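Hi support team,

I submitted a single chain yesterday and got back a structure, but I'm not sure I'm reading the token output correctly. Could someone confirm the output below corresponds to the sequence I sent? I've pasted both exactly as they appear in my results page.

Thanks,
R.
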Amino acid sequence: MRLGLLTAPFPQTPLMEVADWAAANGFESLEIACWPPTTGPTRRYAGTTHIDVTSTSAAEGREIVDRIASKGLAISGLGYYPNPLHPDPAHRAMVIGHLKRVITTASAMGVGLVNTFIGGDASKNPDQNWELALQVWPDIVRHAQDNGVRITIENCPMIFSYDEWPGGHNLASTPRMWRRILEAWGGPIGLNFDPSHLILQMIDMERFIREFGPSILHVQAKDLMIDREGLYERGILSAGIGWQIPRIPGLGAVDWPLFFSWLYRVGYDGDIIVEHEDRTFEGTDDLVKRGFLVARDTLRPYIK
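Hi R., thanks for writing in. Yes, this is the structure output for that exact sequence:
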């Protein structure tokens, strides 16, 4: 098991500088952000291009792996989290095209995992979204298989704003849907497990790890605090808007000893990647780094 971080909170810092800092501060792996280059506004914690897969050659990709390894770090996976089930066909085609390029680049680099979302149309119910996924995803899965790469899907419902409400932008957030995903594509697709999303949905973490543990291929460590005043004002039908507060591990409601107890029990021994979305520790690289250090000190006792 290795402790690492997702590079997305460092959008203006070159990848090798992020790697130098991570290695010097006790991290062992990186999930590398691979959004397409853009100059316009992006979703919060998205839009970081630490590897530009639109222009990186196979030789350049292997050089990145070697340079990362020379610093004592591994690459847990390449990360790109768009909405492949977006209701706009042109946008959907664009993000799927880029996702396929991320997969191709991962293969050329010898990186075994690409981490993403399955997507969702917020105006559709889960069963309607599943029917759409059955149309869209077989082609993506075939591309991953052809390139010898596995896809991990994060269990985030993606409901943070009213343009994502009520259905969210990621179907793969509940046990009911994960059973369908694994029945259809288990093997090429596995779970990128983030326990904070279970807090929001009131899903039992121990039971979830027990059931889906063999399919957990990658872990993102993030915490969640429930703002009880916000919940009182808005109620649960707001689906977290106004009362879910992403936090650095150790500052929210996730039971980390129980989390690691069950990960070890089901045999997970892969990367634990800190996903930093805590507004308390953002605005400057120094604040972002401070947040990562808080997370490191919370999680390190469980990772040897």
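A quick pointer for reading it: The first helix runs from residue 15 to 24. Let us know if anything else looks off.

Best,
Support desk
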